[in-house]
């Protein structure tokens, strides 16, 4: 029986809720006190660790499986510390033996060209995700997209780096943590056109359900970059909400709309933020901001009228 989730959800005598008592290993009714189950087996560890270092020293299992690793984290890892289980230093003969074992273990982890391809791609995905400040969920999604692209044979004639960058771009949009194509290009090792072509191919062939990016998803990052007040942030959010779902947003760059809304809200609230400051943070030209911010202000004034 799992101590966290008892097998019975209600008391058969009074119908009240039952709870598990992990200290006693019992499941009891909250109303009448009837003991429904007892002597539950605790499947957790029998030891306690208070720091990550203590956990690493005591734990007898490896890390969780992850799709961001070419072998999903199921292969054996040999530590590079030349010490035995008691912490004593190994002899010279044993050190040489362990060095050879590490070499062969590393070679066996990538048995064929497919695994070498995945290893290189996932290293690239993790590097770009770290540079862009993307969470683990985006890395997992990007790894799944790359695996599917490899299984479908979409890498023929395309570079590993290009498809990996396209996977990161697509995964960020799917997780609603969008990054612009220019931002991905700055951390990728291929040019913008290759990433765009790979993205169109991967998205079309795999049938990825990717909706247009929401301009409001860019606002927190842009607002933090220019260090504006909360009033400006809220006003920019309201401006974008007022045009959401209208024909005005069709065909327009979501990041450009977010930057323009931020500048328009600064003008409406009287806070001094220059177009160039927003342009540097959003990686959007000042012309794009000037083109849209007046329209957003006029739209807001029309709604007030």
UniProtKB/TrEMBL annotation:
UniProt domain TFIIB-type: residue ranges: 7-37
Keywords, sorted A to Z: Metal-binding, Repeat, Transcription, Transcription regulation, Zinc, Zinc-finger
Gene Ontology biological-process annotations: transcription preinitiation complex assembly
Binding site for Zn(2+): 11, 14, 29, 32
Sequence repeats: 123-206, 217-298
One MF annotation (Gene Ontology) recorded for this entry: DNA-binding transcription factor activity
Pfam family for this entry, one: Zn_Ribbon_TF
Annotated GO CC locations: transcription preinitiation complex
Function: Stabilizes TBP binding to an archaeal box-A promoter. Also responsible for recruiting RNA polymerase II to the pre-initiation complex (DNA-TBP-TFIIB).
UniProt similarity note: Belongs to the TFIIB family.
Full protein name: Transcription initiation factor IIB
